Task: inverse folding
């Protein structure tokens, strides 16, 4: 057997154009709402208008009687599925509160579904929503972590003493003693708001039940079809093989919120089963604003201790995390906890999480997932410390970076996958050098000095980060030689635009030593591969990638073994060219892949296989990484502020990025740039507003400032590649790095621009009014804006 | 986000349109470009029983030269205004403001008159038409009437139009010789409604003294807001730094902003001062375009 020979990479690492693009660009993509399900009914949800209330009664009779309405169900009408949806990531101390698909007694946030209307069309269903009469007994609500944690705050969930969901402390070294002994200590309080995922395609579920086979098929715009299937099997008390969950190949964006499970996903298939008729629900944008999870605000109290030479001696960060009305999972704050130290060697660390319930839609990961907030806490304090010492902030960073020869580097904390926080590989000093060389840091400082002399407010910001990515537990890849002689690669993970059909065909082509043309990739269907986790946490290239490599390698071995038997030769001398396996020194002796499939897979009815022919050419490999890999990056930005309006003009932006070995550079650049747009939104635009009663105030794009192409400035990209030793591809994650340090970098630059006035920026996003405020609260020299 | 039930009418003549409006007065809405109305219908903020689509009415799609200037009828799209050399030549304010209105896709459908009839207090076009002292031609089953822009805008999203009236178009007079205009806006994002905007025109005599002046702000009142104190202070003055500063102060005083999640009232007030000063600085720096060259050489 020769399948372990190393063949040169020919496809991996190339900027192959995406196979998906033709259908996406010609409008031929199939999104959930494009599925043709003849006779399908459409659903709409009655949603709570109150942030906290007891449901006194629900009268559905008028709605049910409306022509075109098929049925109306409340939580009380569906006792079979009245089970709590388990949180995705838990902690032993989590005080979990059941999140019901349709709550029957209490509503805890505006937008929470309380009844479903199924009708012949969505128009009729929406007409009927107005006829469902719900009587609420309105209760006091809480809409910030501050209000939730205040003495005497209204209790969001009955039977508890307070609104704390979980309180976790992690330490490394002796942070209390080190802080007390530090020659310099600085403190600040930062609030960091993150927005939602705002995928172009909203959530959606369609389902059809076949009573003959008792098969329930569910189409779902989810990032995690297997997770949805497992959760449905649990809620419905059905065997998982009775449920097939399919994420259509063209899901229009996920970004985190679609990796969660929502009540609507439990209700729609269930009513399709009750009705024996297909039912679909496509979330509209208004529902998306109130009922799809988002990340929202964290409040960080951070203190840094350092010496005269600019060595960080200790960091202490205590932060409040808004969990929303229920805990859908603790992944976000757990990631924040461990992301704090970033690229720095910090001997003493105290990182503390207080997650609390509030009367707002539950929170979940959104691209970056808890990391941007930690990076703000760390990188803003690094700038403050440098300022305090009168040291260049880049020099301060250089003095504290983990060095290239210190990997694997043990931080002393625990990552959210449960492993000791260990950076697998990286080269932070090189990343800093390359980024700042591209940025022309010293040149930018000179231009800043010249601009200041003219009275212009120009500032420079740098921010560095690490990103735990490529998380477990595992991801799988399944190969099958089809009867026509082509290869089908099946992944459990569901793409939302990343180009899996292309990238995994590249990896498979190299693993098989075959042309990409003969390889097709299919994704996101629990009927095609039994186990899977999904697309989140920048994980798939580092998990499904190695699985695809190894399964392909095994498949090549099997193909060659069968060819060897068919050609009566030794596999050592076989080669694959196009659709043919031939003897290396005698190409006239060959078999086609179609003939191999005929011999091994199709066979002859009742006839014994010839010796050496393997029955059924298929391989499945699940790859489980030992622990998370660490991608890293450094961003540098120059901004100019208009002191009168507070407008921020981004003059230059350079991203230095290290995601290990790259499968397709063009797609990685796309991920980084897309992530950057999210970062710009977090830094300068996006904020989901709620008033004190928990009413959302930004429920359309009129009020929610998603950046458009006009707001996202040009970026220059710099890549370095330190392979991960944790997987055979050396890959790390690339999906979130573009986002993570942008708020910190922009905030550092803005504060640097305002330094002549000593104005402080402590809350993100940074909007023009906040800048004008920061300029006018300090007693300035009269050049600031006019106040009447 | 599906509209409620309505009956759709697509009249072919103004008379028919007015008849439908008259018959269902109070329960009918005019549909022009649909860029403001359709979102309101989809949000079910507005649930009229009848929609009167005026897009098939004849002779309302091209600007018309009049004795004193231009008439822009109801179906002239915002993009057409922006691209019309004649209109942007005569009224650079229109083009400048249109660059800040939404995005090209929306301006391709949205009409100038639809924006006036919609009367969002933060919209650019009502402000500019007020600054240009436009007159609105209005028809109803009772006949036609003309209303000055300043009297047309009553409140945020409320105009002088009665339920059964149709806005036929707007008349804009050519600017007198020696007039310069400027528009400045500040918005959260490109294409957003204004946090504040100021449209201005000033006529100066050969010695640079302001003889005529009009300043109107958007986003800081319940209608386009005439900045009368600022205007008055400028009459008879030259546009030097102190005149600009005084006008900016006066403008900030007379602005009537309210705060919301995006910006405080104080911030918007500051913006009015800044934008007023910038508008006037532009005017001061510009060679008045409509001054005949002979006059300029004599000055
Ligand atoms: C994403 C987006 C961004 C936008 N940004 C801006 C912006 O920055 N600034 C801005 O000013 N606008 C903005 N708009 C609104 C846009 O300019 C609209 O086109 C305009 O407000 C309405 O014009 P319309 O022709 O589309 O009118 P419609 O939407 O058809 O009608 C609007 C209202 O006016 C009434 N109406 C229309 N025509 C007549 C008539 N002839 N007689 C009587 N009543 C009439 C209708 O009954 C309705 O009440 C934006 C719109 C969108 C969708």
Result:
């Amino acid at each position: 057997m020769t399948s372990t020979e190393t063949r040169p990479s020919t496809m991996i690492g190339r900027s192959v154009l995406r196979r998906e693009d033709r259908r996406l660009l010609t409008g031929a993509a199939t999104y959930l709402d494009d599925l043709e399900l003849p006779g399908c009914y459409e659903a709409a949800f009655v949603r709570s208008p109150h942030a906290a209330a007891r449901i006194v009664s629900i009268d559905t009779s008028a709605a049910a009687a409306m022509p075109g309405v098929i049925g109306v169900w409340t939580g009380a009408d569906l006792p079979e599925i009245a089970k709590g949806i388990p949180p995705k990531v838990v902690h032993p101390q989590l005080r979990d509160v059941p999140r019901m698909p349709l709550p029957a007694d209490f509503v805890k946030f505006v937008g929470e579904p309380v009844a479903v209307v199924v009708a012949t069309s969505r128009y009729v269903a929406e007409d009927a929503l107005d006829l469902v009469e719900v009587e609420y007994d309105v209760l006091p609500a809480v809409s910030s972590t501050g209000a939730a944690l205040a003495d005497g705050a209204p209790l969001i969930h009955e039977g508890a003493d307070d609104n704390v969901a979980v309180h976790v402390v992690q330490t490394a070294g002796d942070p209390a003693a080190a802080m007390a002994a530090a020659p310099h200590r600085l403190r600040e309080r930062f609030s960091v708001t993150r927005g939602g995922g705002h995928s172009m395609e909203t959530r959606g579920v369609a389902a059809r039940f076949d009573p003959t086979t008792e098969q329930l098929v569910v189409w779902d715009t989810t990032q995690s079809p297997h997770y949805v299937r497992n959760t449905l099997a649990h809620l419905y008390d059905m065997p998982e093989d009775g449920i097939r969950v399919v994420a259509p190949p063209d899901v229009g964006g996920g970004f985190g919120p679609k990796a969660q499970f929502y009540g609507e996903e439990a209700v729609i298939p269930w009513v399709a089963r009750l009705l024996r008729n297909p039912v679909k629900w496509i979330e509209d944008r208004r529902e998306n604003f109130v009922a799809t999870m988002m990340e929202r605000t964290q409040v960080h109290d951070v203190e840094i201790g350092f010496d005269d030479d600019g060595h960080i001696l200790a960091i202490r960060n205590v932060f409040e995390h808004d969990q929303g009305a229920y805990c859908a999972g603790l992944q976000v704050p757990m990631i924040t906890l461990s992301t704090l130290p970033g690229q720095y060697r910090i001997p003493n660390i105290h990182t503390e999480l207080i997650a609390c319930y509030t009367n707002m839609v539950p929170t979940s990961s959104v691209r970056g997932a808890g990391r941007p907030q930690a990076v703000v806490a760390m990188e803003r304090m690094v700038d403050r410390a440098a300022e305090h010492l009168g040291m260049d902030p880049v020099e301060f960073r250089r003095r504290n970076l983990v060095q290239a020869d210190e990997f694997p580097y043990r931080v002393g904390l625990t990552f959210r996958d449960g492993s000791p926080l260990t950076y697998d590989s990286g080269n932070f000093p090189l990343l800093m050098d390359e980024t700042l060389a591209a940025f022309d840091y010293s040149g930018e400082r000179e231009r800043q000095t010249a601009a200041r002399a003219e009275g212009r407010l120009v500032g420079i910001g740098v921010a560095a980060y690490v990103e735990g990515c490529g998380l477990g537990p595992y991801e799988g890849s399944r190969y099958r030689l089809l009867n026509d002689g082509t290869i089908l690669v099946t992944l459990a993970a569901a793409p939302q635009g990343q180009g899996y059909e292309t990238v995994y065909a590249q990896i498979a082509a190299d693993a098989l030593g075959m042309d990409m043309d003969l390889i097709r990739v299919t994704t996101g269907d629990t009927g095609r591969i039994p186990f899977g986790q999904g697309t989140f946490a920048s994980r798939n290239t580092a998990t499904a990638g190695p699985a695809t490599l190894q399964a392909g390698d095994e498949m090549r071995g099997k193909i060659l073994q069968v060819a060897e038997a068919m050609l009566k030769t030794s596999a050592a001398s076989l080669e694959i060219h196009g659709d043919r396996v031939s003897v290396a020194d005698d190409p006239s002796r060959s078999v086609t892949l179609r003939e191999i499939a005929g011999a091994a897979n199709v066979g002859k009815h009742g006839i014994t296989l010839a010796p050496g022919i393997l029955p059924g050419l298929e391989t499945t490999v699940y790859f489980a990484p030992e622990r998370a890999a660490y991608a890293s990056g450094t961003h540098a930005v120059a901004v100019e502020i208009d002191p009168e309006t507070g407008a921020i003009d981004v003059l230059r932006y350079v991203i230095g990025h290290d995601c290990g070995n790259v499968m397709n550079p063009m797609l990685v650049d796309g991920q980084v740039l897309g992530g950057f747009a999210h970062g710009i939104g977090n830094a300068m635009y996006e904020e989901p507003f709620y008033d004190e009663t928990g009413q959302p105030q930004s429920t359309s794009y009129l009020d929610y400032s998603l950046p458009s192409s006009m707001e996202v400035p040009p970026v220059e990209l710099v890549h370095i590649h330190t392979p991960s030793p944790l997987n055979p591809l050396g890959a790390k994650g690339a999906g979130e790095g573009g986002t993570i340090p942008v708020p910190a970098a922009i905030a550092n630059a803005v504060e640097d621009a305002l330094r002549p006035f000593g104005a402080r920026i402590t809350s993100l996003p940074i909007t023009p009014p906040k800048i004008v405020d920061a300029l006018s609260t300090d007693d300035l020299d009269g050049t600031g804006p006019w106040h009447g | 986000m599906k509209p409620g039930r309505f009956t759709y009418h697509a009249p072919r003549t103004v008379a028919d349109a007015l008849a439908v409006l008259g018959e269902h007065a109070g329960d009918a809405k005019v549909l022009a470009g649909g860029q403001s109305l359709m979102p309101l219908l989809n949000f079910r903020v507005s649930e009229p029983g009848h929609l009167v689509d005026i897009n098939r009415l004849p002779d309302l799609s091209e600007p018309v030269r009049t004795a004193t200037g231009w008439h822009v009828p109801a179906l002239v799209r915002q993009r057409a205004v922006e691209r019309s050399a004649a209109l942007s030549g005569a009224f650079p304010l229109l083009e400048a403001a249109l660059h800040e209105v939404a995005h090209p896709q929306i301006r391709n459908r949205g009409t100038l008159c639809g924006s006036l009839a919609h009367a969002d207090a933060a919209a650019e076009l009502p402000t500019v038409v007020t600054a240009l002292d436009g007159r609105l031609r209005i028809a109803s089953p009772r006949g036609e009437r003309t209303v000055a822009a300043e009297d047309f805008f009553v409140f945020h999203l409320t105009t002088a139009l009665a339920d059964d009236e149709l806005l036929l178009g707007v008349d804009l007079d050519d600017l007198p010789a020696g007039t310069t205009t400027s528009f400045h806006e500040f918005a959260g994002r490109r294409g957003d409604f204004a946090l504040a905007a100021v449209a201005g025109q000033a006529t100066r005599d050969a010695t640079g003294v302001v003889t005529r002046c009009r300043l109107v702000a958007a986003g800081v009142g319940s209608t386009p807001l005439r900045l009368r104190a600022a205007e008055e202070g400028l009459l008879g003055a030259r546009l030097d730094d102190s005149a600009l500063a005084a006008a900016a102060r006066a403008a900030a005083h007379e602005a009537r902003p309210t705060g919301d999640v995006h910006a405080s009232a104080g911030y918007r007030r500051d913006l009015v001062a800044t934008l007023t000063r910038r508008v006037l600085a532009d005017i001061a720096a510009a060679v008045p375009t409509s001054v005949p060259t002979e006059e300029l050489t004599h000055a």
